[in-house]
From TrEMBL:
Protein name: Glyoxalase
Catalytic activity: glyoxal + H2O = glycolate + H(+)
InterPro entries: Class_I_gatase-like, ElbB
Keyword terms: Lyase
Entry's family note: Belongs to the peptidase C56 family.
Gene3D superfamilies: 3.40.50.880
Gene Ontology MF terms in the entry: lyase activity
Membrane-crossing segments per the record: none
Protein purpose: Displays glyoxalase activity, catalyzing the conversion of glyoxal to glycolate.
Taxon lineage: Bacteria, Pseudomonadati, Pseudomonadota, Gammaproteobacteria, Oceanospirillales
Amino acid sequence: MSKQVAVILSGCGVQDGAEIYETTLTLLRLDQLGLGYRCFAPDIEQHQVVDHRRGEVAEGERRNVLTESARLARGEISPLRELEADEFDAVILPGGFGVAKNLSDFAEAGDGMQVLDALSEALSGFHEARKPIGLMCISPVLVPRLLGPGIAVTVGHDPGVAGAISAMGGLHRSCGVEDIVVDFENRVVTTPAYMLATRISEAATGIFKLVDRVDELMDR
């Protein structure tokens, strides 16, 4: 039986949900490596809906995070509350502002943020079982709240987000777009992705390295 990876989404679209390219590249690499995967998302209302053409909040429009995430997963998705760590070998979180708006309130609260209870419960199972956890783009900012202090992560070179990670007790490591940071003790792998990427090929290099390293850690 192939190894199984849970992929947690936060909507559909960089400005109010999961980053589409990051999600697609993650699923592509998992498939190329012969790894099974299942997507999950919280069954909650989005914090806000953004018109991606204009870059403006669509006032009065309401959408559901699970329903929107189903667009990325081609309908094959489950509510986050159903994610059980003992059924998977690893978990990966793509980025996008849905991480900072739907999975947490980082977009508004900064280093005083709170993380969605369902996400905290799901990730704690992977961490306690020492199963690999991959996070990209803005999602590494969740690590100090989700997994505890002292874990090395990267969001690239962004001083504001790096400072927030440090303020919450995390360890930020500067990193290029095509590379990864690995905390071997905690089995956490991170990459900047679209925190730095200017082209999809740049994002792909780091994301593929992240998935490859998660795959390697599953064997250890």
